[in-house]
What does this fold into?
Amino acid sequence: MALLPTEPLQILEPQPVAHGRNDLRRSLVGLSRDELKQVLAEAGLEAFRARQLWQWIYWHGVTDFSLMTNIAKKTREQLAEQFVIDRPGIVTEQRSVDGTRKWLLRFADGNEAETVNIPEEDRGSVCVSSQVGCTLTCSFCHTGTQPLVRNLSPAEIVGQFMVARDSYGEWPTPTADAQRMLSNIVMMGMGEPLYNFDNVVTALKIVMDDQGIALSRRRITLSTSGVVPMIGKVGEALDVNLAVSLHAVSDEVRDTLVPINKKWPIAELLKACADYPGARNSRRITFEYAMLKGINDSDADARELVRLLTPIHAKVNLIPFNPWPGAPYECSSNNRIHRFAEIVNDGGLSAPVRTPRGRDIFAACGQLKSASQRGRREKAAL
Ligand code: SAH
Ligand code: SF4
It folds into this structure.
């Protein structure tokens, strides 16, 4: 039985340590515009340098000060003495037969998290992690079985997307959205983004800044397991698309799947969703629903889902359960998933069945970090 943590347990903040380098030069990545201005001012540099550096870092993707041709050579040398523009270290990059790429990244303190890019015909969605592990213990999610947790910093969150852009060579920022290979960000990697709210907000504001990576808020989706008091704040601070991990239509079942439900049950969650700013105009909230054999996949469940979501501007994402070693569930059969989808569709809600991507490299929903941990255990056994 999964235990319900009373609070986001023992979330450690990243420690300021030398960044895998032999020095303590400060990284300029992950600072808000104001912070960047301030850091440069402390180094005796004028405010307009912040604007120039921002464009070099986030529009051009440059990591070498000597390439910043509109800055005088002497200033570039001063910058290089005091600062760096860095990325998380890449431990491995794996490529699935279906084109999905997954990076295992290592941060300055040795902690690791995974990032995935899922290419589709008209888009590439980069699935970004917000924490190392997760304090929540959803019983069907492998990330939830990992003990070690700390919040990722804004630099580590933005850095994941920058690593993906490096890997695809997508610098400078494409001027037309249609030209982007990496066109979307989904905060659906490891961790609960609303338990790392401030850092996620800083990171996403950097990503949305139109002088840099310039991703529109319509191309960003934040997924939450249901941290009700923070949902309205996402609307105020970011107004990005919202996805909610619902997975069950009764509190009894959801308590066992998504234990945070004991704190904020379905009715409270749906109320917060109905009040989300996007929900009042054309943007729909996505409700994620993992299909678990015999647990949440009956015809009655599908009808209840329609009843619950009809008052909300909603769509449903049906996710076939992705198994992991020792998982206590099985995926519903194809027939069951399609019948379930049919009932939800007939009820007037869009309910596409998500094709699992990157299963061969353990990159599918809920599988993150498992491969790297297993790999290390295998190595240790040699
Ligand atoms: N922590 C956030 C972001 C998560 S993961 C959240 O829970 O919303 C993205 C989605 O994958 C969530 O809906 C999550 O519940 C779901 N998921 C987790 N493990 C899964 C598994 N093994 N199979 C299918 N979906 C899973
Ligand atoms: Fe954490 Fe989301 Fe996994 Fe639940 S589903 S354990 S909130 S990552």
